[in-house]
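Database export, one record per block. Field names are fixed; values are copied verbatim from the stored entry.
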Amino acid sequence: MTDSHANPKDHPTGNAEKNPDDWTTGAEAMTGAQASYLKTLSEEAGEAFDDSLTKAEASKRIDALQAKTGRGV
């Protein structure tokens, strides 16, 4: 019998809650999906869209803009 707490598939959202500063790929360019959503949020918030953000920076910016626009609630 295996320990269910050791299997990451038992908790598929666990990675989604990881701090972007701790991501191993956080310094890479943001993904296309991040860029698209961030552009939409930026327009809704009336703020500039920065296409040079890293994955980690984009994630933090998305969180901030979701809070500002009410989309993240």
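Remark 1: The chain has a mean pLDDT of 83.
Remark 2: The CA atoms of residues 19 and 71 lie 20 Å apart.
End of record.
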